Amino acid sequence: MSREPAPVSLPVALTIAGSDSGGGAGIQADLKTMEAHGVFGTSAIASVTAQNTRGVEGFTTLPVEDVEAQCEAVLSDFDVRAVKTGMLAEAPVIRSVAEQVADLEIPVVVDPVMVAASGDRLLDPAGEEAYEDLFTHATLVTPNTDEAEVLTGIELTDDESAESAGTALREMGADAALVKGGHVPGETVRDVLVTADGIEVFEHPRIDTNATHGSGCTLASAITARLALGDDLRTAVGGATAFMERAVRYAVDVGEGPGAVHHLVELRNRAARNDTAEAVEGVVQSFVERDVSALVPEVGMNVVGATPYAEAVDETAAVEGRITRTMTGVKPNRGVRFCASSHVARFLLSARENDPSLRFAVNCRFDGDVGAALSTLSGEVAEFDRAAEPEDVKTEEGSTMGWGARQAFESASGTPVAIIDRGEVGKEAIVKLLAADAEELQRRTLALLSALEAREPDEEDEEGASP
């Protein structure tokens, strides 16, 4: 018996760019990124490069008529909602592409690729001048600082110079310009968007990595995909820059060079949500079966699991209402859901800033006996002192956990298995156990419980005991 087909309708985007044999940039990056956004990607290859994570070893530009034939094939058949251009390499190709998109009434994103992240030049001098033809049809141009300087002659050092360069690019004909700040030194990366409506700066912390191969292509194709989905320009740029931050932080370690950005990072992260929640449920069930009452603090216990590339509390699963002691053992108040924890989740996310492999955490009560039992665990135990907490941190809602995690990691020689918070007046002493996977967290917690139960009462306990 045959089955009824169930076709899916997706918005279509077209990328006109170079092919990267290393898979991290160019057409390959564009198609992966579009797919990750739920957009059907089509392509017209303008050049073929021989490159890898170490650099570009050579490239060949396709004849203009071949590029035109590809564009015509796509545009005559597909309902293309947005176009992105990347490496076009030579002036005749750039002018031809300008003609191809001139009559399109859809967004056109121009990434003026001139130099690879490795420093290899990808555009001849005549091509630089030809870009002005293409800019007159561009909804957005996305140069990095080096490219913006070549195109405008303005040295980029700060927001003001980036704004000037963006304005110059608009005067060349582009509707808007996003001048990317990744090449400007500093602790933060500031991308400056210049439009007819004004200036907007998209800022995020700089990630200490050289694995940025394909970052420019990926950002431009992410913007293109979001425009194809119907986002306005500001929303598309904001979403794409956030997407890029995660893609760079969790770069793919391939090749002998620095590696490539992770084009599918958000897709993989969303796909892991069910498994993460199920892992938390498994740990909670084991705690109920074993009865971990002796480790439950007065505020209640919670088990938190983060998705593999979690960056926010809503990407962590936990017990809604926490785990509490009852007359017969412990019981979760409600089920496991995402964004159910604030305190432990924030602490786990802060710990991940120091070791991104950490994905699970649990908070337990802390006293002298628990402290002694902690010494039986295999691994370093760190702590932080709330008495040293700066006043501005205390007064900022939700910042103590981040500060405490940083203090604990700075005092440790590696990744601690547990971090002690000795509390203060009105704040219960707590120890948080950390682990890379749910099984490890479960073993670590139950080992702590067994060590605690095995401890002999000290003399003070014996003297205070009832006969």
Any idea what the CATH superfamily of the largest domain is called? Ribokinase
Quick one: CATH class of the largest domain?
Answer: Alpha Beta
Indicate the CATH architecture of the largest domain: 3-Layer(aba) Sandwich
User: What is the number of E strands?
Assistant: 18
The biggest sheet, with number of strands, parallel, antiparallel or mixed sense and barrel status, is: 7 strands, mixed
**What is the CA-based Rg, rounded?**
27 Å
Strand portion, in percent?
15-25%
Point out poorly predicted stretches: 459-467
Count of DSSP helices? 16
Structure commentary:
Strands 14-11-10-15-18-17-16 form a 7-stranded mixed beta sheet. Strands 3-2-1-4-5-6 form a 6-stranded mixed beta sheet, with helices on both faces. It has 467 residues and is of the alpha/beta class. The chain is elongated and about 85 Å long. It has helices spanning 26-36, 64-75, 91-101, 125-135, 145-152, 159-171, 215-228, 233-249, 265-271, 273-290, 343-354, 368-374, 391-395, 400-411, 438-454, 459-464; strands at 12-20, 40-52, 55-61, 80-85, 108-110, 140-141, 177-179, 188-195, 198-205, 303-306, 316-319, 323-326, 329-332, 336-338, 360-365, 381-384, 418-421, 430-435. The chain folds into 2 domains: 12-262, UDP-N-acetylmuramoyl-L-alanine:D-glutamate ligase; 272-455, Class II aldolase/adducin N-terminal domain (L-fuculose-1-phosphate Aldolase, 3-Layer(aba) Sandwich), CATH 3.40.225.10. A hairpin with a 2-residue loop joins strand 8 and strand 9 (198-205). The protein is built from 16 helices and 18 strands. Helix 2 runs parallel beside helix 3.
